[in-house]
Structure formats: structure tokens, C-alpha cells
Design a protein that fits this description.
single chain, 153 residues, mainly alpha
Length: 153
């Protein structure tokens, strides 16, 4: 999955307008313009399409965490220069304050049955012997399940 696709899916899931997305980027420590946001949301075949870099998506996800959970004391979170699906899944879990049971329900709603042990392996450190890479299919099904759970219309 591309960062742009993730951004589009999150926008649709939460019904975010451009101004709210710009606000989330700002809360994450990045000043995005309306034109940038618009170009990130365009399809790949559009000539104005602009690829969303990992650090830009990390700023957005950090802003989503701050927006949903509030500012935490201390220095603001630093946006990661490299994102992988495991980190994206972790940031969404934090932002939405999801417990294991919630994650499993969302995964199942998205069409993927995952055991609690398989889920916990996605959140381990990469050097842990039971670490599991979060494939695109897992993240895609999780985002689909989030749409079913959080989309209000």
C-alpha cells in the first residue's frame, strides 16, 4: 500500500475535510498546504498527483494521535523518517486507543481472522524472535474494518 492510499482511506473513514487534515499535519509538526493535501489525495494517474513521503505520513499520524488523545507532557513526538506497516498499525492503535479485542474485531470485520498471538507478533520489536512483518493485506483489511467501525454514514 502506498502512503497516499493510507491517507485517502483515513480521510474517508473519519470524514476529514481539507482544513481538518491540515490541522492534523500541524499538530504532528508539519505545515502542509491545501495544495499539498489535495495532491496527496489524488489518484496515481492524475498529473497533479504528489507522492506522500514516509515522514509526511508520520507527521499526519502523530497529529491524529495528538488530536484524539491530547497533548502529552514533554517534547513532541518526532516523526519517523521511515515507516513500515507495523509502525502505521501501532500508531493507529495508539490514536484510537484500541485494545487487543478491538483490534481483533476490526481485523475480522475487514475480512481477516487473526489470533491474539499473531496480532501481538505485529507489535514486537523487529529483532524479537516472534516478530512478524505486517503485510499490505493485513493493513488493508484493518483499514477496511476501521471504515466499517468508524465511518458514520
Amino acid at each position: 500500500m502506498t502512503n497516499n492510499d493510507i491517507l485517502r482511506r483515513l480521510r474517508y473513514t473519519f470524514g476529514l475535510k481539507d482544513s481538518k487534515m491540515i490541522s492534523l499535519f500541524k499538530k504532528g509538526g508539519f505545515c502542509a498546504t491545501r495544495e499539498q493535501v489535495s495532491d496527496w489525495l489524488k489518484r496515481e494517474d492524475d498529473p497533479a498527483y504528489l507522492r506522500c513521503a514516509d515522514i509526511e505520513l508520520a507527521h499526519f499520524l502523530n497529529g491524529l494521535i495528538v488530536d484524539r488523545r491530547g497533548e502529552k507532557e514533554g517534547p513532541p513526538a518526532v516523526a519517523e523518517r521511515r515507516l513500515d506497516n507495523n509502525l502505521i498499525l501501532r500508531k493507529l492503535k495508539i490514536a484510537l486507543e484500541l485494545k487487543t479485542e478491538d483490534m481483533l474485531e476490526i481485523m475480522e470485520a475487514g475480512g481477516l481472522k487473526v489470533s491474539p498471538h499473531e496480532l501481538s507478533a505485529l507489535f514486537r520489536r523487529p529483532n524479537h524472535k516472534h516478530y512478524r512483518v505486517c503485510e499490505d493485506q493485513i493493513l488493508r483489511n484493518f483499514l477496511r474494518g476501521m471504515q466499517l467501525r468508524f465511518r458514520t454514514d
